[in-house]
From TrEMBL:
Signal peptide: none annotated. It holds the Pfam family EAL. PANTHER family: BIOFILM ARCHITECTURE MAINTENANCE PROTEIN MBAA (PTHR44757:SF2), DIGUANYLATE CYCLASE DGCP (PTHR44757). Residues 225-277 form the PAC domain. Residues 450-712 form the EAL domain. This is EAL domain-containing protein. It comes from the Bacteria. The lineage of its organism: Bacteria, Bacillati, Actinomycetota, Actinomycetes, Kitasatosporales. Transmembrane segments: none annotated. Gene3D superfamilies: 3.30.70.270, EAL domain, PAS domain. Residues 151-221 form the PAS domain. Residues 307-441 form the GGDEF domain.
Length: 714
């Protein structure tokens, strides 16, 4: 057993050794194999550097391919063996410490570039040989006998020794001579080749202009042409060539012969097809990948008038749970099974299925009438997912959410269509999943606006685009202003003033609610302190308080207590002048760990209000374990009091809640008071404070100051 190379240079040299052993037997060179290995070592180093470079540059592969031709590795087998070595060993010996998937992708692109560089260099070499051959042939026709003999000798040497296939025919297409390289290409004898006429060498994949160019050449209208052409070998297999045909004239300038030069490109073509397949198909499922799908979608969207398209964008529901619980291997097997089922759903002409990545798939249908076809396709996909997938003895239920986009070709681009499908798919997922939704412009616009607001949130906080309005809290007993609730607003540059319902859910989803909430708390506490300074010695009912809302994310943030303490100490505001409002739904079923920060704040003297009380269906007995001092009754309980007479059921409910709250030493605040009759009824029922448009709408902090001063002087 031998030890593995232990350094980058050792591994690089080992790669060069393997490469030289593979290629040397098919290389026409006077070097020994060790000398040939030394010639390949800098090429191996160039590939290694390109593989590991921070910015990937495929030009390195082209340079290495050209260098192989310069080193006389012109046999097609030399290129094939070189690419096989790079594919098998480059990442193994030169990239073992890097991300293997990315390195494999780079290696594949380097192979493609090597093939391109090799082809370009070989083509240039071929053209050079063609020039020499043509020159020798022309010189041979017009020289005197001795010169003709010498020229013929030179021509014969080039003719027989050339690595490319050469054939000479008369203008009727009768083949007069062929060299050994051409016979090897066709795999037959010289006689078998010469018995055929040039015009018999047709192939179904001939370009339309091939035989038109031929006719122009033999008639003397053109001197040469160059095309890619396929031929049939005697065994029926295809021979692909780069074909150059030149016209040879006699001493008087009359057309006399045609000279054909053929470069065998069959292996390179197969390699390109393989690389193209790998570049356009998903390695796991074998389905077309994002690249090929976008090509097909772009073609469908640019179809002629009267053509339409339909697209189904599928995302599996709960796939992450399967990956997390059963492992990625099981997840991959599930994806392969789903891909097979989807493939069976799209078999009609104009239909295709692709995998975009992860557990996201797309199905496309095209034609003049896709309105019904795309719905049928979505139904087939949903039905195909109904049967459980059996993996490792488990039956896994597979469900999916589908977004459908359908419309005429020519109106939208691929990116816009896919974005609409993605938005619609998430709408189906938000509605519970295991269903499909059809795209519509209004939903797309809302989603795009929502996304724009989400991305603009961080910068908006930095630019100071948020501000706070305050809605007074009024004591129902004496109608005096006791404080205010802080309500944050966003002054958006394009959309104007946005209420919290437009951006608070987005801030919670992105985590920005924590810094935004800290800013709101700091600004509100500072404002409360300013009110106290301005109202000092003028208000007999105590200092004005400020109520600040806490989101569930803030409630579980480890810095909540410390941030609150620091803000209060920095402003000089007493804890009793601050009330933190937490929604009832955030505290339903909360364990002691969640309640601990609220208890610490309550012990400091900060009031805790249970907001939207009555909407969370919580057990009233749980109020005893919550560290709250205020119940904020949801407006739904008091709407029936806006009319006269008030709804007796609502009166009984509110009366019961107030009685219960007061028995637990909790104050009761009512939201949404809009009429004087409603305020009076709530006062009679024993509610402590209220807020609503009857008293004042949310406004700037100076408005609260004015209201408070009016109470103090009235």
């Amino acid at each position: 057993m031998t030890a593995e190379p232990d350094g980058p240079e050792d591994r690089l040299r080992r790669f060069a050794t393997i490469w030289s052993r593979a290629v040397f037997p098919v290389t026409s060179t006077s070097l020994t194999r060790p000398e040939f290995e030394e010639q390949l070592l800098p090429l191996a180093r160039r590939l290694s550097e390109a593989l590991l470079a921070r910015a990937f540059d495929p030009e390195a592969g082209k340079e290495v391919g050209a260098a192989l031709v310069a080193g006389h590795c012109t046999d097609p087998e030399a290129l094939s063996r070189s690419l096989d070595c790079v594919d098998a060993y480059l990442v193994l010996y030169c990239g073992e410490d890097g991300p293997q998937e990315d390195l494999r992708a780079r290696s594949s692109r380097l192979q493609h570039a090597m093939a391109a560089g090799y082809a370009q260099a070989l083509r240039e070499r071929t053209l050079s040989e063609q020039e020499s051959i043509a020159q020798a042939a022309l010189t041979a026709q017009g020289a005197v006998a001795q010169a003709l003999h010498e020229s013929e000798a030179r021509f014969r040497a080039v003719f027989e020794g050339a690595a490319i296939g050469i054939g000479i025919a008369d203008l009727e297409g009768n083949i007069l001579e062929v060299n050994g390289a051409l016979m090897r290409m066709f795999g037959g004898s010289e006689q078998a080749v010469r018995e055929r006429n040039v015009q018999e060498w047709t192939h179904p994949e001939d370009a339309p202009q091939v035989w038109r160019l031929y006719e122009e050449l033999v008639s003397g209208e053109r001197e040469h042409y160059h095309v890619e052409k396929a031929f049939y070998r005697p065994d029926g297999t295809a021979l692909w060539t780069n074909l150059t045909v030149s016209l040879l004239r006699d001493a008087d300038g009359n057309p006399r012969y045609q000279l054909a030069l053929m470069e065998d490109t069959t292996e390179r073509r197969l390699l390109n097809l393989r690389l193209r397949y790998e570049a356009t198909h998903d390695a796991l499922t074998g389905l077309p990948n994002r690249t090929l799908f976008f090509e097909r979608l772009e073609k469908a969207l640019s179809a002629g008038e009267g053509q339409r398209f339909g697209l189904c964008y599928l995302d599996l529901d709960g796939f992450k749970t399967i990956n997390d619980s059963l492992g990625h291997a099981a997840g991959d097997r599930l994806l392969v099974e789903v891909a097979d089922r989807l493939q069976s759903c799209a078999t009609a002409p104009g239909e295709m299925v692709a995998r975009l990545g992860g557990d996201e798939f797309v199905a496309l249908t095209t034609g003049p009438d896709t309105q019904q076809e795309v719905d049928d396709l979505a139904d087939r996909i949903m039905n195909a997912l109904v049967t459980p997938v059996r993996i490792d003895g488990r039956e896994l239920l597979v469900r999916g959410s589908i977004g459908i986009v359908e419309g005429p070709a020519g109106e939208r681009g691929p990116a816009e269509v896919l974005r609409s499908a993605d938005i619609t798919m998430y709408r189906a997922k938000s509605a519970g999943g295991n269903r499909y939704e059809v795209a519509d412009a209004e939903s797309d616009a809302r989603a795009i606006t929502r996304h724009g607001l989400t991305t603009a949130l961080p910068a908006a906080l930095d630019r100071g685009e948020f501000f706070i309005e305050y809605q007074p809290l009024v004591h129902l007993g004496d109608s005096t202003v006791r404080g205010a609730e802080a309500l944050v607003r966003w002054l958006h540059p394009q959309h104007g003033v946005l209420g919290p319902d437009r951006f608070i859910p987005l801030a919670e989803h992105t985590g920005l609610i924590v810094p935004l909430g800290r800013w709101v708390l700091e600004e509100s506490v500072r404002q409360a302190r300013e009110w106290q300074e301005r109202h000092k010695d003028k208000l007999g009912s105590g200092p004005l308080r400020v109520n600040v809302n806490l989101s569930p994310c803030q409630l579980t943030h480890p810095g909540l207590v410390q941030d609150t303490v620091e803000i209060l100490e920095r402003s000089g505001l007493e804890p009793g002048a601050l009330c933190l409002e937490v929604t009832e739904s955030a505290l339903i079923g909360a364990d002691d760990e969640v309640l601990k920060p609220l208890r610490r704040l309550a012990e400091m003297g900060v009031d805790i209000a249970l907001d939207d009380f009555g909407t969370g269906y919580s057990n009233l007995a749980n109020l005893r374990r919550l560290p709250v001092s205020v119940l904020k009754l949801d407006r739904s309980f008091t709407q029936g009091m806006q009319q006269f007479p008030a709804d007796p059921v609502d009166l009984k409910i509110v009366e019961g809640i107030v009685t219960l709250a007061h028995s637990l030493n909790l104050a009761v605040t009512v939201e949404g008071v809009e009429t004087g009759a409603q305020a009076e009824q709530l006062r009679i029922l024993g509610c402590d404070t209220a807020q609503g448009w009857y008293y004042a709408r949310p406004g700037p902090p100076d408005r609260l100051h004015e209201l408070a001063m009016a109470d103090a002087t009235g």
